[in-house]
Amino acid sequence: MKKIVFAILAFVLYGSALAQGNSSVFGIIRQNYYSTVTSPFDSSITWQQLDSCTIRLGYSNPSNGQVFPVGSKQYTQSINLTGAALDPYNNTYIFQSGTNICSFDMSSGNLINQVPLTNSMGNSYFDNFRFNHSDSSIYGLSRRNYFDPVSGTTKAGVFLAKANSQTGTITEISASAITGGYAILGSAIDPYQMLYYFSGGNNLMGVDMYTGAVYSNPTLSFNDGFSLGNFTYSCVDTAIYGLVRQNYFSYVYDPLNPNDSMQVLDSSSLKLGRVNPITGVVTNISSHSIGIGAYTINGGAAIDPINRIYYFSSGSAIVGVSMLTGQIVSAPTYAISGGGDYFDLMRNSENCYAATRIRQNPQATTTNNIRFESELNVFPNPSAGRFTVTNPFDNGTLTVYDVLGHQILKEKMSDKQMHINIEKAGIYYLHVSNNNTTLRKAITVQ
Length: 446
Prior knowledge:
- The chain is mainly beta.
- The protein has strands spanning 2-4, 25-38, 46-61, 66-69, 85-87, 92-97, 100-105, 111-116, 118-119, 125-132, 137-148, 153-163, 169-172, 183-190, 195-199, 204-208, 214-216, 221-222, 227-234, 239-254, 257-275, 281-284, 301-304, 309-313, 318-322, 328-330, 335-336, 342-347, 370-371, 377-379, 386-390, 396-401, 407-413, 417-421, 426-434, 437-445.
- It is built from no helices and 36 strands.
- It starts with a strand and ends with a strand.
- The chain has two domains: 2-347, TolB, C-terminal domain (Neuraminidase), CATH 2.120.10.30; 371-445, Sandwich (Immunoglobulin-like).
- Strand 12 (153-163) and strand 13 (169-172) form a beta hairpin.
- Helix content is 0%, strand content 53%.
- The chain is globular and about 85 Å long.
């Protein structure tokens, strides 16, 4: 009989210059503090023990690895691996610390809200959460125990849910448990079809965000690889991208049983891949290994929709991989201004900004007063800085924000069409408001 031994690499968590022409990534700068502990049995043996950590909001141009703090404040608390959400409409970055859901203001870096998570259905966790741009809500997995009347036993279950970051209220959408658990391999939201995706290990489960029911659940199939991790959704081409891992083993004799052998993991390779969420077929984009064998699950993933680059963390560097060729285009080592050990839970807003729902909820009886790009025409986009904006209103207010949420332009509109000029290259967010209705669109100055 052959024994298989698997090794899993994971890292466990217990104002300045930004190149506006590139996609900006926000995350949490974490500094760990340790003390030296001496073994009570052998004074010659010592180890480092984590005592505490400080966190602060940061942002980066991932192509050069420079990470800057937002504001001057830092906070003494932990962060959870259970996800993060960047809300560009309210200019907040949302994360969890223990049993609390917390919000950073993305302009000042201040911690502006911190409330306990509560679920009327029972004590639960809220995992794998992300922000959905098409309805401005945070979706994730409510994980709790529930009583099964059929078996008469208590079981562990996972339910699709929403969370209110202001009140901490978890609202379950699924009427019953959709599965018993999940793998920490990523999550993705398709804002157009209103589908939430997560991993069951060997399968990719898609859940209807209107009803909480399972929409698809194919087994993943690989041509070269055995797992898909750190995946996220790309709005620029409506696809799910992630890292395809392949492990390489050798056989060695079992020292406890010379007549037996076991497999030992020698190394791993990664390729960028894309998955069809309906069939489960994973297609490798990289023709060969990208030369990095591991990624950190606390680093997160981000997509630059302008340059078509997928970013992930190797632990010490932000690695950018071309979504077209599958090869590394940048891998700078972190350079954290003001100090810090890690840059965790990377998120960006440009990827799905102003996405609008295509698949509607047939049972909906109300209409959102925030509408999106289908009714707002901006030409050309991208441009060298001059845009023509056409909207359905006869009058209103036009406002432009940069990626940090700073207002750079505000004009009254007296006609359905007007021209605006923006000098500095970068990605901007255009809002046109009239009474209680707001239209939104992302624009790019090259």
